[in-house]
Amino acid sequence: MALRADVIALGTVEAVEGAMSDDGRIIVTRVTLQVERTLKGGPRARVTLEVPGGRIGDRILIASGAPTFAKGDRAVLFLEGAPGGGRLSVVGWNLGRLEVRRDPQSGRDLVNDRTGGALYLDRDGRPVDPGRRGVGRVELGDFLRQVEAILEKAGRGKGVAR
Questions:
Q1: 125 versus 60: which is more confidently predicted?
Q2: Is residue 1 situated within a structural domain?
Q3: Which residue has better confidence, 116 or 124?
Q4: Rounded to an integer, what distance in angstroms lies between the CA atom of residue 135 and that of residue 12?
Q5: DSSP 4-44
Q6: Number of folded domains that form the chain
Q7: pTM of this structure
């Protein structure tokens, strides 16, 4: 996801608004994220993105697998540009939105990796790297350093546009 994303940002959801898509065919949710830290895609104070599904008045569209957002949510988002230069969208739908929560016992910020326990397979069903598994919850600073290491190795760090 880190390599596919055009923008990787840690931030807090500032606004969530249901709207019709630009072509008028589906309900979408437009989300404004106040950026705390950008790992890829250059510095910015805010990011606006769009996900399928949402609510307009009493009309609701549920897009199975699409991430949902609420004002005040804190997350690491992996975002890509929409075809034709439209709004940003989330890479891998739910997989590209990693929730950040404060652990009440330790006081540490933790990233909830939805791939916890997952084993990655190639197209033939063989493990890609048997030692590489989703890890579940991880400390935020450790997670951000892991993403930065992936980007640095690929030569696509801060401010580097794809």
A1: 60
A2: no
A3: 124
A4: 23
A5: T-SEEEEEEEEEEEEEE-TTSSSEEEEEEEEEEEEEES---
A6: 1
A7: 0.82
